[in-house]
Amino acid sequence: MADPQHLFLHGSISKALLKLGIPIILINILQSAYQLTDAFWVGRLGAEQVAAVSVSMPVTFLVIAIGSGLAMAGAILSAQYMGAGQQDKVNHVAAQTMLMVTITATILGLIGYMLSPYFLTLLGVEDQVFGDALKFMHVSFIGVVFVFIYAMFQALMRGIGQTKVPLYIVSGTVLLNFVLDPLLIFGFGDFSGFGVMGAALATLITQSLAAAIGVWVFLRGRHGIQLKLSSFKPDWQYMKQAFFLGAPGSVELSARAFGLIIMSFLVASFGTHTIASYGVGSNILQMVMIPAMGLSMAVSTLVGQNMGAGNPQRAAQITRLASLWGLLGLTIVGVVAYLFAEYLVAFFIPDDESVIAGGAEFIRVMCLTWGGIGVQLCVVAAFRASGNMLNAMVVSLLSQCVIQFPAAYILSKHTSLGPQGIWYSFAITNVLVAIITYLWFAAGRWQRTQLTKEDKDIAKVTQETLIEEGNH
């Protein structure tokens, strides 16, 4: 671990971003292959089935988001303790976070499963979409616990700068998903398949396998984090404090998920074809965000470790460079998407001209502002990694509740734009939020937070707990 740590804390920032960012981007590309594979095969069933998946995804994402703040707290602390050279605390934080995440995911998955039909009724889903959407949602909620555990494994490994092992695991599970998807959706021989639900089942099987491998890697302890079964004894004091650190992160991600649900209400009011256009456009947007997310995750690890090592100036340099890369990179991708919009949509739904036209229109309206997403993601990653979860939460609330939904509603319902108004709300939000977040970052107050030294609530409690454990 010595060479990577030296690079992360003292070496070339460009090299450090690339060393971390490239494997993370590859992981994200492979993970998006889950959704791409699902979207590709479900698209062969028809627009109604695509709409069923499109409606279900934001609801399951909301439940995952509620519990993700806890995972975020663990990833932030593990990165800062790694930067501070405190390996025992890295192990302690990892074990307690895995325990918290598993308990939380189980509870949220059960609640989500039971409330699924009520969610769909609230969303006003059409009768021909309801049945498939409910099946997809039920299976997705069963799998929430495995999604959580593996996401936590990845976040902790990323926090300490270890990205190769998650890349190998994701590669294997995506290949398995690629085989299972058409088999479980369409069947084979005498087996008739499960339709839309088959896509969710394939993901459930592969994610549970990935989660099991992740836990096994931690218990073996050969890749930077060593967990023992005794490490999972609940440390209630740490959990309480981590909850308060992670709560703004849960609110942040929940606001984003809730924003998606509200947008689904709005989109649904224009009918199934608009939902399908929105679903395909959203899938393409998720693909585009892969490199930006990879870059922002690299920022998160580097900023966390440098803040833990007491070097906020280097953390700021990292964020500035990454934001510039994000701005330029996603703007170039946006220009390409503008030129080939119809072909991108036709990949998902090849036989529906109205959906191809609607999806292409969605992409063309928003794609030239994608550079703003790159800036926003990198700055928010720096806020989170430095322990300024409230900043990230405010950006999310501002983005979803103050800018995007009001703009979408006014433009689509009170102008002649109709559904196009929803598309324009994405472009407006991308530009405004990028400007606001960067100005906030440039003010520099976020650099004053350092959990491993100054956070009286969490770092101290964790330290005292470890000392007490050592004395027993």
UniProtKB/TrEMBL annotation:
<feature type="transmembrane region" description="Helical">
    <location>
        <begin position="165"/>
        <end position="188"/>
    </location>
</feature>
<dbReference type="GO" id="GO:0015297">
    <property type="term" value="F:antiporter activity"/>
</dbReference>
<keyword id="KW-1133">Transmembrane helix</keyword>
<feature type="transmembrane region" description="Helical">
    <location>
        <begin position="257"/>
        <end position="278"/>
    </location>
</feature>
<keyword id="KW-1003">Cell membrane</keyword>
<feature type="transmembrane region" description="Helical">
    <location>
        <begin position="194"/>
        <end position="219"/>
    </location>
</feature>
<dbReference type="InterPro" id="IPR052031">
    <property type="entry name" value="Membrane_Transporter-Flippase"/>
</dbReference>
<protein>
    <submittedName>
        <fullName>MATE family efflux transporter</fullName>
    </submittedName>
</protein>
<feature type="transmembrane region" description="Helical">
    <location>
        <begin position="98"/>
        <end position="116"/>
    </location>
</feature>
<feature type="transmembrane region" description="Helical">
    <location>
        <begin position="54"/>
        <end position="77"/>
    </location>
</feature>
<keyword id="KW-0813">Transport</keyword>
<feature type="transmembrane region" description="Helical">
    <location>
        <begin position="390"/>
        <end position="410"/>
    </location>
</feature>
<dbReference type="GO" id="GO:0042910">
    <property type="term" value="F:xenobiotic transmembrane transporter activity"/>
</dbReference>
<keyword id="KW-0472">Membrane</keyword>
<dbReference type="InterPro" id="IPR048279">
    <property type="entry name" value="MdtK-like"/>
</dbReference>
<feature type="transmembrane region" description="Helical">
    <location>
        <begin position="16"/>
        <end position="34"/>
    </location>
</feature>
<dbReference type="Pfam" id="PF01554">
    <property type="entry name" value="MatE"/>
</dbReference>
<dbReference type="InterPro" id="IPR002528">
    <property type="entry name" value="MATE_fam"/>
</dbReference>
<feature type="transmembrane region" description="Helical">
    <location>
        <begin position="136"/>
        <end position="153"/>
    </location>
</feature>
<feature type="transmembrane region" description="Helical">
    <location>
        <begin position="324"/>
        <end position="350"/>
    </location>
</feature>
<feature type="transmembrane region" description="Helical">
    <location>
        <begin position="284"/>
        <end position="303"/>
    </location>
</feature>
<feature type="transmembrane region" description="Helical">
    <location>
        <begin position="422"/>
        <end position="443"/>
    </location>
</feature>
<dbReference type="GO" id="GO:0005886">
    <property type="term" value="C:plasma membrane"/>
</dbReference>
<keyword id="KW-0812">Transmembrane</keyword>
<feature type="transmembrane region" description="Helical">
    <location>
        <begin position="362"/>
        <end position="383"/>
    </location>
</feature>
